[in-house]
Amino acid sequence: MPENIDRKALYDIGYGLYIVSSSHEDKLNGQIVNTVFQVTSDPPRIAIAVHKDNLTHEFIKGSGAFSVSILDQETPFPFIGTFGFKSGRDIDKLSQCSHRIGETGAPIVTENALSIIEAKVISDMDLGSHTLFVADIVACEALKKGVALTYKHYQTVKKGKSPKNAPTYVKPS
Predict the structure, then answer these.
(1) Which CATH number belongs to the domain containing residue 30 in this structure?
(2) Please, are residues 151 and 135 in contact by the beta-carbon 8 Å criterion?
(3) Which end of the chain is more exposed for a tag (fewer CB within 10 A), N or C?
(4) Does residue 73 come out as left (phi exceeding 0), alpha (psi in the -120 to 50 range) or beta?
(5) Measured at the alpha carbon of residue 154, what is the angle toward residues 151 and 159, in degrees to the nearest 5?
(6) SS3 90
(7) Residues 156, 140, 116, CA angle at the centre, nearest 5°?
(8) 121 occurs within a structural domain
(9) Is the pTM of this model over 0.85?
């Protein structure tokens, strides 16, 4: 990494914390991501970045679909930990929360979610460690009112850390 990169400056970029879920061959999985953004309004499209080593990445590549659950600021830390620090290769994360299956077959986590979005991938881009998936929104719904969980709140109030596959991970010195 270039010496003139002060990673602390990157912490000032606004992020949320979301659960991205997908399915493949009758298996379900989901994970925490911090990179979800709307890219167009007509047609309505979003993009997400997912680490290539994660099981959810494999499921999105296989199914071409995913869901996004926009988390409430009051989401308990253990819930975040299940989706952010445990692997779907080791545990069935979706069996531990409320969810439903969407139009595309992707699971949609409804527990602790303010809103949900279901999307079908139309394009992807290799970003090195991550893949950027661009997708058409096929369904979305506001479930309840509240304040969306931001990465800043997660770090400063909840005292949460970034897992090693997160784009914001900084190796301890």
Answers:
(1) 2.30.110.10
(2) no
(3) C
(4) alpha
(5) 135
(6) coil
(7) 30
(8) yes
(9) yes
Residue 9 sits at φ, ψ, to 5 deg, of -65, -35
The verdict on residue 116 lying in a domain is yes
Structure tokens at 41: 């309004």
Q: Tokens 């400063």 belong to which residue?
A: 156
Number of compact structural domains in the chain: 1
Task: Please report the pLDDT score of residue 154 as a whole number.
Answer: 82
Distance CA 31, CA 59 (A): 11
SS3 93: helix
Residue 6 has pLDDT above 50, yes or no: yes
The rounded distance, in Å, linking the Cα atoms of 24 and 170 is: 31
Is 7 within a domain?
no
DSSP states of 35-56: -EEEEEETTEEEEEEEETTSHH
Q: Where are the beta strands (DSSP E) in 2-159?
A: 18-24, 27-33, 36-41, 44-51, 65-71, 99-101, 107-109, 113-126, 130-142
Check whether 162 has a pLDDT greater than 70: no
Which structural domain range is residue 121 located in? 15-156
Is residue 171 domain-resident? no
